[in-house]
Write a structure and sequence with these properties.
Elements (H helix, E strand, L loop, with lengths): L9 E5 L10 E11 L5 E9 L8 E2 L1 E4 L2 H12 L5 H4 L1
Antiparallel strand pairs: 1-2, 1-5, 2-3, 3-4
Length: 88
């Protein structure tokens, strides 16, 4: 099992691999990587760009992004949404 991320990386985490912004997602600094007994890996972030409505801030898909990309994504989301895959 290989993990390509380190604590402190700036990332986009999402509930599903298609990174649909209508599903759960968060942008911030990777603060925790959890590996469960079933070998599922979950990522947790800290930061200002975490939607308040999330019931969980732990997601199974992670992508390293730049701070500039993160700020632009949050800006686009506040103006009506964006497809993460097309934007990144």
């Amino acid at each position: 099992m290989e993990i390509d991320f380190e604590i402190g990386d700036y990332v986009l985490i999402s509930k599903y691999s298609d990174e649909d912004p209508a599903d759960g997602w968060a942008i911030g600094f990777l603060s925790k990587i959890t590996i469960y007994k079933n070998k599922k890996i979950y990522y947790t972030v800290e930061g200002d760009n975490i939607p308040e409505h999330l019931s969980s801030k732990e997601f199974s898909h992670c992508r390293k992004i730049t701070k500039r990309q993160g700020h632009k994504l949050v800006e686009k989301m506040s103006m009506g949404g964006v497809n993460f895959n097309k934007f990144l």
